[in-house]
Structures are given as C-alpha cells and as structure tokens.
Amino acid sequence: MGVSLDPEQNETHALLQILGDLSGKRVLEIGCGDGRMTGRYAEKAAQVIGIDPDGDKISQAIRTAPPYFQERVSFYADDLEGYAAKWQLVNPEEGFDLVILAWSL
Amino acid sequence: MVHALEIAHNLLKPGGVLVDIHPLGAPPAIQVRLEEKTIQVGWLQETDNFIEYPQATNAVAQAVSKGWFALDQQCEFIFITHAISWEELQSYLRTKWKDAILPEDAAIRVEKLLEDFGVGSEVVLEERIGVMALLARS
Q1: Does A89 lie at the interface with B, CB-CB under 8 angstroms?
Q2: Helix ranges restricted to H, B12-119
Q3: CB-CB: which of A2, A4, A28 is closest to B11?
Q4: What pLDDT, in 10s, does the model give residues A12-24?
C-alpha cells in the first residue's frame, strides 16, 4: 500500500520524551492494534504486554514482530476488562510501572 | 471511558504512570505536498463529528478529579499520514478509519495538484494528537 504513517517519527519523539527511562519497567499497552506503536518503544522496556480486542490485528502484531520481541513482548487478543480480571487473578500483588492507552480511550 | 481509566489505575503499581494518547479532535488537514511546497485542500471529517475525542479528554479530567491520578506532563504532536495518491488514501481510510469522510470536491483538486507537482508529490493528512502522563495516586 502506498501509505506511510508518521515517517517523521513525531509520535515516537513525543512518546519517548514523556515516557522517560523505560529500563527495567513493565508496560501494558491497551489498544496496541497491529503493534505499530509498540515497536517504537519496546526495545527500551523490560517487559511489554500489548492487548487489543481485535484478534486479526493481534495476529498481525505477532506475525510481524521483530526477533527481539520474543524475549520481552507478548500480545493478547482481549479487552481491558477481561485482561485486567485475568491479570489480577494470576498476579494479585503485581502491578505495571506504566500503562499506555494507545489511541484507545 | 472513566471506567477504563479506573481499571488502568488498578493495574498500576503505586506511583506508576498512565500515558494517554488520543487525537485532540480538530479535523485533520488534507494537503498536497512536494518537498517545501504545500497546498491546503480541505479537512477530513468524521461521521460522528469527532465526538469521542473531547469525551476522552473529559474522562481523563474526571479521573483526575476523582483523585485516581495527578497530571504529570503533557505535550502535543502532529501525526502525518502520507499517501502517494488520492486512491491510496481512500483505500487506507476505508480499512483503518471507517468513519472518516473526505470532502467530495477534494478528489479532483488533489489529483490535479499531484499531476501539476509531478514526481515525488504526495497527499498527506495532518492530525493533532495530545499525550498526557498521569501519576497513579493510591
């Protein structure tokens, strides 16, 4: 497709400026879609979980993930309410350092 | 939306940060460009008149007023979508931005400008996006 999104990386610059140092941090990205934005910061975080209710987009995110994602990034087809219930059941004492609402509120 | 912010708050560690990114709700500008030359052609509209974006901003304000978060930082940026033709832009919007409405008279004007500008010209959408970092309060 002859369309490119934010090749100027204005989004990346704004995001990295506001996120600050991500080293050692656990991040939840809500509405990650096909992982377009995830790839712009995930390399700097310790662990990233991306969720999106659209299973097709999550399949695309998994299919197109760069190799380094395997160590630290997981994608799940789920909505926020469903994922939060599962997370709190399995990890009642653990929270995220950072939650990103990615164009999804 | 406020409920989603409450859930996000509950998922954060004490002192954790919520970052919200959403369009500010101004109609994105449609332009034809070639290097430094830019011609404004019109504005993209949405079938619901961008109602969800001020609602999102209002939901964040409510979450702050409820004491779940404190505003830490905010900034804006311009998100630019580049297309090599009007047809490519339409095709992209049909799949990725389903409630987008392009002005009816823009197609002919854009195609004429792309032809006049020649090789390397493109049609772009410029959209203003807001970013807020909110500190979770216990």
Answers
A1: no
A2: 52-65, 86-96, 106-117
A3: A28
A4: 999 999 999 999 9
Q: Residues, chain A, total?
A: 105
Inform me whether the pLDDT recorded for A32 exceeds 80: yes
- Please give the model's pTM, rounded to 2 decimal places: 0.90
Q: Is residue A86 situated within a structural domain? A: yes
Does a structural domain hold residue A80?
yes
Write out chain A residues lying below 8 Å of B74, CB-based: 18
Structural domain count, chain A = 1
Which of A1, A2, A99 shows the shortest C-beta gap to B12? A99
Residue at A94 is within a domain: yes
What residues make up the domain containing A56? 22-100
Whether A16 is in a domain gets the answer: no
Q: Closest Cα to residue B79, out of B113, B130, B35, B117?
A: B130
Task: Give chain A's mean pLDDT.
Answer: 93
User: Residue B94 corresponds to which amino acid?
Assistant: R
